[in-house]
Design a protein that fits this description.
homodimer; Rossmann fold; 4 helices; phosphoprotein (chains A, B); dihydronicotinamide riboside quinone reductase activity (chains A, B); FAD (chains A, B); Flavoprotein-like_sf (chains A, B); flavoprotein (chains A, B)
Chain lengths: 170, 170
């Protein structure tokens, strides 16, 4: 079994850092192959820009990020950092997202990973989305820490923004 | 009346670009002073890192972004791009966020604006949050475009992640 941990914390000594390390150790012990995308250490680019397409644009007159990345995905024209991350996702049976909650959601660096890596053509293709999405046989697990006490948050470990993700939690 | 438009689209000719331009023109005509933070044009940094604190850290042994930016805000030690944006927010009576929906939420570049600009001490200070937050007398308006038809989204112009923001919609 292959696991990809997408990890977003600046400090290895943090609780998030510990949770990531424990996950790597425990999963490896169980025989899994674990890959970590340490977004801050990679200085992962969160901004969705024209730089994500390495060759010519489909429509250079009016830039549409969704259309351009979709077209670039199909012809293999996405930037290397995206291709690398997509390979890791493709290889993985389980994805773990480890992050602290910022403004009731994931930090921008991880939101940028979602925006840029999970492009149309790779993660979904109408009408193949949600339960019939292209990554439907993968599991995803969100592990995050909060700045508040348990009472300050509603029960359940997954917040509103997050449960809409592609992969059914099955 | 002063208005700040926080705008996140790569293409001036896009629908988001047009909506921003129309807002600037119409509000100016009505006598408002309008400022635009054009995040992609500014190449706004979305990543929350140690670089946001220009001087020494409060605790250099273990980096905690929330604590460090809170402390830095109090002593005036935040980076210039954050201080500039906080000034714009402080000056504004109305904030307008203009963006396309990416993965059921705002694009990472705008999430980074939230994460980095709205730090503790500036936007909120326990127990002053939500209706008693430090920016409570400001109005905020979210204007966004979607890739799907009206039927694909629930009614109402504000999505789950967004309505939790500090400023009451009053």
């Amino acid at each position: 079994r292959k696991v990809l941990i997408v990890y977003a914390h600046q400090e290895p000594k943090s609780l998030n850092g510990s949770l990531k390390t424990v996950a790597v150790e425990e999963l490896s012990k169980q025989g899994c192959t674990v890959t970590v995308s340490d977004l801050y250490a990679m200085q992962f680019e969160p901004r969705a820009t024209r730089n994500d397409i390495v060759d010519c644009l489909h429509n250079s007159d009016e830039f549409n990020y969704g259309v351009e990345t979709w077209e670039a995905y199909k012809r293999g024209g996405l930037s290397n950092d995206l291709i690398e991350e997509q390979k890791k996702v493709q290889d993985a049976d389980l994805l773990i997202f480890q992050f602290p909650l910022y403004w009731f959601s994931m930090p921008a660096i991880m939101k940028g990973w979602m925006d840029r890596v999970l492009v149309q053509g790779f993660a979904h293709e109408f009408p193949n989305c949600y339960d019939s999405g292209l990554l439907k046989n993968k599991l995803a697990l969100f592990s995050f820490t909060t700045g508040g006490s348990k009472e300050m948050y509603a029960k359940g470990g997954i917040n509103g923004d997050i449960r809409y993700l592609l992969w059914p939690m099955q």
